[in-house]
Amino acid sequence: MEYMFLCVVLALSSFSNSRLLCKFNTFLIFIFLSGAYSYGYDWIRYREYYEFVFSPYDYSTWLYEPGFSMILLLTKSLSLDYQWAVALTSLILCFNIYRYSISKINVNFCLLFVFSVFGFMEFAEQIRQGVAISFVLLAVNFLINKNKGKFYLYVFYASMFHASAIICLLFAYMIKLLERKNPALKLIAFILAGFITVWGFKILINYIDVIGINGFIATKLKGYAESDGSDSGILSSGLLLNLSVIIIALLSIQSKSGKYYASVFFSLFVIQSKVVSIAYRFSYYGYAFIYESFEWLYNANKGRSFNRILMVLVLLVFAFKPLINPVYRAMFDDYNSYWLGLINGLPDINNVRMERCNTLINNGIQYCSH
Fold it and tell me: Alpha-carbon distance 307 to 155, whole Å?
């Protein structure tokens, strides 16, 4: 209920350009995210890692995503509950999305877009990549505004929280090509390259033992292989929703700008990437370009009122679609606020873990090891 209420508030606010309202709504998002106690499956896994595995003296702790490890080190050294690590990551994330939103023409519409697409899963559940996405949003904004130095810097920040963000360095090369002659032909080439890359990943993962890849990378890739790409992310099975995004992106290329051609590519890549989960993880970063198309249509003079209402409705479908999935619905139905729990009492973590594991097992997902 808390999530739905927040989405409705953001939707109603989206027609206003008040920065004060944007700041207030960002604060509400922070309260929701930072207080999400025993929220989801990754939350349980991260908490167990924090309490039983995390060691600042192990070099592997700093080898991948050292930004998140620094937060864990800070809260661990202060003997704080894992939820304070969640609160710190939520603070960074909310600060970034506020900065991103106020940099746009329609500040509250931008905030609605960001939270509708990423709020339920990436920001509240997959928090490492959620923080990375928030940095990538700013990075792409700098790239669009011809500030390549800050673009590279913010991609680096993003990769400190999720290594996959390093792929965003290619965005600079993509935009450079799409802003030159024959962008339509180059767009087709990118689409074909995306198709080949996704299927290449699938073949690699399926035959990873034959190829001889092992260790941390192999374990991660196998883990992704066990998760069907069509069941991950916000647009898991909504073909009509996917098509609406593609149509919006295609309409925006009337403006002949490289960022809109990039939007078309990523709107199609979302569908392509469903072949394998790891590719879908990469597709999240492309929404920084897809937003540009949404904003273009939101501000189009022809049928402006209709367009704006339609955009908000589409984003609400984005926001509520995960609730159709019984696995995600269990998370939605069991939101516990850490901040209120300090007064009223917190749920037993072992019971929550058992319930989460039973939900996964009942839906054919072997996530829990014990």
Answer: 32
